[in-house]
What we know:
The structure holds two protein chains of two kinds. Chain A is α/β, with parallel strands linked by helices.
Amino acid sequence: MQRIGVFICHCGTNIAATVNVEKVTEALRKEPCVVFADNYQYMCSENGQQLIKNKIKEYNLTGIVVCACSPRMHEGTFRKTAEAAGLNPYMVEIANIREQCSWIHKDIDEATEKAVILGRTAIAKLTLNTPLTAGETGVTKRALVIGGGIAGIQCALDIADAGYEVDIVEKRPTIGGRMSQLDKTFPTLDCSACILTPKMVDCAQSEKIKLFTYSEVEEVKGFVGNFKVKIKKKARYVDETKCTGCGVCMANCPSKKGLNAFNMNLNTRPAIYIPFAQAIPNVAVIDPEQCIKLKTGKCGLCQMKCGVGAIDYTQKDEYVDREYGAIVVATGFKPIDLTNFNEYGYADNKDVITSLELERLMNAAGPTKGVLLRPSDNEHPKVITFIQCVGSRDVSGCGKPYCSKICCMYTAKHAMLIREKYPDTEVHVFYIDVRTPGKNYDEFYRRAVEQYGVDYIKGMVGKVYNENGKLMVQGSNLLDNTQVVIPSDLVVLATAIEPDPSVRDIASKLTISIDTNNFLTEAHAKLKPVECATAGVFLAGVCQGPKDVPETVSQASAAASKVIGLLAKDKLKGNPCVAHSDEMMCTGCSQCARVCPYGAITYEDKTFGRGANATVRRVAVVNPAVCQGCGACTVTCPSGAMDLHGFSSSQILKEIDFICKK
Amino acid sequence: MENFDIEYIKEISRTDVRKCMKCGKCSGRCPAFNDMDIKPHQFVTLLGQGKFDVLLKSKAIFSCLSCMACVERCPRGVAPANVIEAVRDTVERMQNGNAIKAEDIPPIVDDLIPQQLLVSAYRKYRK
């Protein structure tokens, strides 16, 4: 027989103004097993907690019910209080008589009656509670960062700075990501490479950071503190330890017609290449689809010319097994595909380009060596028209419903840079709204208008067509209610961004939920912006939502601090309210494993009985360190074998009985 | 007899003008723009503002080609051509009711032709 104490909180007037706490105290005192009941103004206060501690000792209580606010608020507080008085923390039940009672009722009698029902329900559940002990697991003191863009780089540097090992897995041959493709960065217009490449070099030189470039995450097993990851290192056909990045191979390669993805396919590169001059690692890679030797067996020029013997045509994909305590996802973005937007003529006109293509055309290391020449005839464009919101804020199904957030600023940047460098150029910008919240952001945009004379036109473009070699941009000018046609030499589309497609695969491997736009879902939109519902997995950069470089860097550092906080622990305390399977009842049907969102359930063959009576059966086993106690398996299990500690089916049924009892 | 008012136009246009984000892409695309006294985007705005009389006086309802380009291009799923058609219908119905009966429409009509196009064509080109 349990000895239960009931503590009813007034929460100032929050509860006491709508619930007659004296009546509730009287009523609950009469419940079975209750040996003590009292009320107090603020149960969570120092004095309130002391009252609970004293009564636990005085009445030798085996469990307590606190009728107060939501358990999300103070369950942890009261569990600690109970523990300090020598009670098992899981012998504490909370009856939520604030959010679920006093706040939503006006009538005192009604609210009081409901508070009594909620209280007695909690008491009924508590009579079936058993003391639970949280298990402990160790922590592998190493982190994995998936994605080597600015988010991954910053995150890795911060984690390394705290003294922990960190691996970066990057699918491309070099780290640097999208930021390495940018020419200048807003709002200060500093050169992107100048601020990014030192960080890339820091990554390469850090003793704590290991780079897996041209690699992908193949498989993830385990749980917070103990992830086991298989990394696939794709064959480079170049020995990373020997290659010096001298570039002789590139100069001698006869297959020069590969599209240069780094330059947004605006020019070509040889089959053996280094993506760009400051690539980290500065090591060549062979494109097997393009290499004559790998395709036909004849050539081998690069091998002959390589002074250090780094070329190895026989290289195969390699697999590396690594263990981690925490994982950060920073898989970044790509501009959307424009096939749905034929009104802008992107596919038909070489001089209709995306903003990221313009970045490469303006960059000194780009296909035009930084001279702005239009792709069709390498002439200087004299009239340039920008179109914003191409594919953003589009709910018609062609584009993306969200605002891509970065386009207003980069378009202002492009317009400004062009007017600065080529003052004889006429620049028009079609916009729906100019959205420039951020430190020095609106000032930046206004500078484009006021100082650089960029012509901003409020309205959207309806079509772009070619007439006598000019790109005719037809759109609205809503402010003077006219339809304008601007004969242009170059049209730049501020293309919406979307998460890199690799994110779907990563999300399923890590059991992270993904929203309708393929952005990864954080644990809480406001208060847990870098955490995931899956413990030990964190988010940084555009994979979580559109953001610019400064915001990405902030989020990456935030994710790093969460990782450091996790890796600093020697042991992780688990949640004891997890599922467990009764192997005598389990039929091994696999339904629980199928619904488990965390991959916590496995099956093993177990021998039951002895000697001649021994039988082998397949039964479910729950890994308590992975289980988050969601209960999906318990309601799915057809044989009733699966149950949840702290929230057993019998406890829940008893709660229902007491709610329904007259 | 129908009650002809702004709600009537809203109902028969079957489009939610609150979805409009005032980008002007409809008017940016419209091939009949210069012949219209009220522009496609203004039809949407005026309907939202409840300017029944202004809408009814529009000459543009007879310039709209029902080419549906504005509907096709709208990023927000608003249908300006439907609003224009609804105003046109309302004007017609207030004068002499429906000018064409459903049974007059040939029984075999290509499914791909927007129904609105057919209806508006009958209205505009009848003698």
